[in-house]
Amino acid sequence: MKKRIKPLFITLIVLFVVFISGKYLLDLVFAGACGNQILKSVPSPGGDKVAYVFLRDCGATTNYSPQFKER
């Protein structure tokens, strides 16, 4: 039984490292794929905050995504 645990444990560690490395590389390659286009900015009545309406675009395989963010 102990002879099976060590190879299984090593395999799981290797798969985990490969997964994390792949995710990091994909994030690095596609980090600039998304962009925001600000459509409108509206200041609050007090002038201390600004609300932005923007369009999020992440390339040809996704739809546009209108969003709202308050800053």
Structure commentary:
- The protein has 71 residues and is of the alpha+beta class.
- The chain is built from one helix and three strands; from the N terminus they run H-E-E-E.
- A hairpin with a 6-residue loop joins strand 1 (35-43) and strand 2.
- The protein is elongated and about 70 Å long.
What layout of secondary structure does this protein have?
Elements: H1 2-29, E1 35-43, E2 50-57, E3 65-70
Antiparallel strand pairs: 1-2, 2-3
Short account of what is shown:
39% of the residues lie in helices and 32% in strands. The protein is built from one helix and three strands, in the order αβββ.
Largest sheet: 3 strands, antiparallel
The number of distinct helices, counting runs of at least 4 residues, comes to 1
Structural class: alpha+beta
Low-confidence spans: pLDDT under 50, at least 5 residues?
A: none
Q: What general outline do the C-alpha atoms trace?
A: elongated
Across the major sheet, the strand order is 1-2-3
State the helical fraction. 25-40%
